[in-house]
Design a protein that fits this description.
mainly alpha
Length: 655
């Protein structure tokens, strides 16, 4: 049996930096260096400070005693629930999950709903499904319903947790209650960040995250203790711990250095390899949480490491994870969606489009899955330069989904801007009128505007002028924000087609009178051309275009994000060539010397991923670079990025 030493149920004093962390990371903003100097504690907070926050234990130790000092029978449970009841509840929840994965969403929810008042696993599973729906729709009523249901689930878990502060013994059910409680805390924190905008909400969310993190750490210690005695449902308990420990380690390890320092200050730590290992082990065990471990790994390989990294998601691992589920659930919407995403990452756009369309046809109950597919279909047709079809899916999203109306409207306008006037007549809308609507659609999530939405609004503002200057290639610019050039880069024909479109935009820009936005537009085209040329193998030309952006840094009026991103791409190019030291200097310059620009957080995520890749330079890559005749040990050239003359013009623009 297990016991722990408990303290009074009062919440620990949260540091002020936790509030900053919540707004910076989950809110999509950025963390400044001054945040680290602002870590002064708030007055001590107790449960009475937040009456709606259930009592939690923040300082406890789960320990293994010698033998059974109290002489209690493990089957004697204080909650009147036998082990078989726990086993039956888990079996029933797994059956409901099976229904959910077969697209029988209403049946799954009905099966769970009948026991949400007495079973912690039924309550948690039901609330998790509602939260998944809320995360996909961003509808306020869905977020509110999910938050209320998750709070009720947490109360059910609390009922099954250890009651006495003096008894050292833990039943199997009480250990399961601990891991379920930690999971509820984490999910409620995510909803808290979505639901409210005030400081108290962010503090409460931060407290929930920290309590969940501490609980998972302690439970992981228990699992690894030699004195731990496995119960009948040990696999499900172990899977829950692996899910929590793996998720925390993986997510924290991906954060930019600035944020990591802040997290370490308040007691968090993360190791990517350990996190992946925990999730992989959890996904293979065939337990209640195997599916969630698998989904988190799939999200990491196909989205997080792709969009927030260097665009090199592990397609091989993703396919291995997906295949067993796709065989068991060939019509499962979730798995068809990920199958399409994997094909998209591989550059097999026609196969991806087919998969996404199959996903939409597989079920009609949850339109939320359709919206996820519409977003990916929009990008697939963008990569193929089928802008009419891309507009069609952006229009569907703008009418049916609430995630970011401003972004959807911007994309509609962007696609129309790539069509002729006659083609636009078919749709009954013009790019100019749609661009002007974008700023009025601004909304806030977690107290702040979405970074993508803020970017779209800033770009659309130029159309509010009396005589607006058109954007040169807005869909191709937004494509870079979502790391789309790594997709087309896998196919020469797609890359050459995009380069041709950029050349056409260049000719149009050259033919127009010079304005105060000409340098911004030219630098944008230079960055995008450099990316295309890099993927086509024209590395010297690509480097030339990246350097052009840096040379005109001081003349850029609004699009300051171009400079750190040009440094990032230049650094990645150097890394491909084996110029590791030079790459690190360029990446460090991008990280340290620029701030307060559009999409800063996303750029910092990518820089962090690139630096991690550079500093773990494997021997095989060094051998490969050497075989290509690229120097791998040469002294790096100092990148010329400071004190550049503001009068240096780009070759295509006559001063």
């Amino acid at each position: 049996m297990l016991y722990r030493q408990r303290t009074a149920r009062t919440a620990r004093t949260p540091p002020a930096s936790m509030f900053t962390l919540c707004r910076g990371f989950w809110g999509g903003g950025t963390l400044k260096e001054t945040d680290l100097n602002a870590c002064v504690p708030f007055p001590r907070l107790t449960d009475k400070s937040f009456p709606e926050l259930d009592p939690v234990i923040t300082d406890f130790r789960l320990q293994i005693p010698d033998g059974n000092p109290d002489g209690l029978n493990p089957a004697d449970l204080p909650n009147g629930c036998s082990r078989s009841d726990l086993s039956l509840a888990l079996e029933d929840c797994m059956a409901a999950l099976d229904l959910f994965l077969r697209n029988e969403f209403e049946e799954a929810q009905a099966r769970l709903r009948s026991r949400t008042k007495d079973s912690m696993y039924h309550a948690l599973t039901y609330a998790t499904i509602l939260e998944m729906q809320a995360m996909m729709t961003f509808e306020p009523q869905h977020i509110l319903a999910a938050g209320t249901t998750m709070k009720e689930a947490q109360a059910i878990c609390q009922r099954h947790r250890k009651k006495s502060s003096f008894s050292k013994n833990f039943t199997e059910e009480e250990l399961h209650a601990e891991v379920c409680y930690a999971e509820c805390l984490l999910q409620r924190a995510a909803l808290t960040f979505l639901q409210d905008e005030n400081m108290i909400s962010f503090i409460k969310g931060g407290i929930k995250v920290r309590n969940s993190y501490q609980t998972y750490k302690e439970l992981h210690t228990v699992l690894n203790s030699s004195a731990y005695s496995q119960g009948h449902n040990h696999g499900h308990f172990e899977g829950g711990v692996k899910l929590g420990v793996g998720a925390f380690n993986l997510m924290i390890s991906m954060l930019p250095t600035r944020t990591l320092k802040l997290l370490e200050f308040v007691g968090f730590s993360g190791n990517k390899d350990f996190g992946l290992q925990q999730l992989q082990e959890g996904s293979k065990e065939g337990t209640f949480r195997s599916f969630l471990c698998n989904m988190l790994l799939l999200c990491y390989h196909t989205f997080m490491s792709f969009i927030l990294g260097t665009g090199e998601g592990d397609v091989h691992d993703a396919e291995k994870l997906l295949q067993p589920y796709l065989q068991k659930y060939p019509k499962g919407s979730i798995f068809l969606f990920f199958a399409g995403r994997i094909e998209e990452m591989k550059g097999n756009l026609d196969a991806a489009i087919t998969r996404f369309q199959e996903c939409c046809e597989a079920q009609q109950q949850w339109k939320e899955f359709h919206h996820m597919c519409y977003w990916e279909l929009m990008w697939c047709f963008t990569y193929k330069k089928h802008f009419k079809m891309a507009y069609f899916y952006a229009d569907l999203l703008s009418k049916e989904n609430c995630w970011s109306k401003a972004t959807y409207m911007y994309m509609k306008a962007a696609y129309l801007s790539m069509l002729t006037a006659d083609d636009c007549l078919t749709f009954g809308e013009t790019a100019f009128t749609l661009f002007r609507q974008v700023p009025g659609l601004k909304q806030k999530i977690a107290g702040k505007s979405l970074p993508t939405e803020k970017f779209a609004i800033r770009k659309a503002r130029r159309y509010l002028a009396e005589n607006p200057i058109p954007l040169p290639a807005p869909p191709l610019e937004m494509m870079y924000i979502w790391n789309g050039y790594t997709v087309i880069g896998k196919h020469k024909d797609l890359t050459e087609g995009m380069l041709k479109t950029l050349d056409e935009a260049q000719k149009k820009l050259d033919s127009c009178p010079r304005t105060d936005l000409s340098i911004d537009d030219q630098c944008l085209l230079s960055l995008l051309k450099g990316l295309c040329l890099k993927h086509l193998g024209h590395q010297e030309e690509a480097e030339h275009y990246f350097t052009l952006v840096l040379c005109n840094e001081t003349q850029i009026k609004y699009d300051h994000y171009l400079v750190p991103n040009a440094l990032l791409e230049h650094g990645l190019l150097c890394l491909e060539q084996g110029r590791r030291d030079e790459a690190i200097k360029l990446l460090e310059a991008a990280k340290q010397n620029y701030k307060n620009y559009s999409m800063e957080s996303r750029t910092h995520f990518r820089i962090q991923a690139a630096l991690h890749k550079a500093r773990e330079w494997p021997a095989k890559e060094r051998r490969k670079a050497k075989s290509l005749g690229c120097p791998v040990t040469e002294k790096a050239k100092e990148p010329q990025i400071h004190h550049i003359s503001p009068t240096v013009p780009l070759p295509v623009i006559q001063p």
